[in-house]
Amino acid sequence: MPAIPTSVRFVIVGAGVHGLSTAWHLAMELEARGTGSGRDVLLLDKTAPGAGATGIACGCVRNLYMTEALHPILRHSVDVWTSDPINLGFQQVGYVSVGAANQESEYEAITRSQNAAGYPSDLRVGEEARRFLTGVWPDFNTEGVACVLHEKPSGYAGTRQAVWGLARKCEQHGVLIRSGIEVTGYDLVQGRVRAVRTTAGDVACDAVVLGLGAWTPRHWALLDLPDRLTVRYADGRETADRPMWTYWRLREGEVFQDPPYRDATDRDPPVLHVELMDRPVRDPATGAELQDHIYVYWKNGAERMPAPGVQGGITPVRLGTEAEVDPYGHANDRYQAEPAFADIFCASLGQLMHRFEGCRPRYHDRRNGGICAFTPDNVPIFDWVRENVYLIADSGHGFKMTGVGKLVARHLASGERVPDLAPFGYRRFAEGRTFGGHNTNSPWV
Length: 445
What we know:
The chain is α+β, with helices and mostly antiparallel strands. 26% of the residues lie in helices and 29% in strands.
């Protein structure tokens, strides 16, 4: 068992993208302010950096959210990705989102909001949208397409490379990373944590930061926080007895492609997202309906693929308030993708691009099994949930959001309010600031 200090200023629990980014940026903030260094920061993970959802994410970095408050968060995140794209594994190829006529107003609002946040994007509608798609992908089937949003700063990153790069930056700034140590409880006195209890002993601390992903509900209970709440909206509506946390199972996979997946200019194409609510996915052999709408995203294959191809996914599956978090990911037999996922994913690709027609035999049958814990409105929480416990609960939005750690570190080091984090407070549910529903089949709103 590796040694840990008995006392430190900041304990960060969870070495996924949020824990790593927060630790790195907090070390830099303390150094810049002359108030400390990375030696004041202890980062704990019960397995190792990137052992949860971060390590098996598809790796898309995008800003397609109908929740406009998220747009500045992603602007900060792209700033982080582009600060060192080689060590963080970032490929800035852009992101293209395709919608039908019933989403045109949402796409217009997203485009305005992204540009207002300093995140350059273009919207094309009608025939201009369809010409844009066939200009990038000449074999794109544009049936039902009415609008296209093109985000220029976006792209994707290799998850293993990103974890390696973030961990190295933590170490270079003196952060103490300890793997194989599990947090088992908190010494909580009158709403304040005096010490973090671990399998390697107790650690007294001034503040705790939680970046736990799917393990958030477990630690929420350890902090004696409520598992049900009344959710209030700005229009006066309220819903009582809502579960605080709901698990969703991700559905992502890979398809081999030869020749390699390229655009019309023989370059790496933008990440692609397509949601056509009135266009069903059909079995290419029988014509039977597999799903009553298309929702699919994919990008060029990066890590974990032994041959050229694409990686992507479709909408996740709601599991409910209980889930088996350990073992996680590929090690858990309960949450592996069912054959129907591969059928829908491959059929969607084939309907949208001729090059993928008949690609089902080229599906890469690899274990994944990621699950996420979502909030009551499916939007992240970035806030103090106990007097000295700060929660980063990304609600499944996680890997791309390296900028959250930068903003949280600024708040921790200065004590000052960070406006871009303010909309994501835990108290929004009680105060009538809960985010509302949106016109999409995806929980990532």
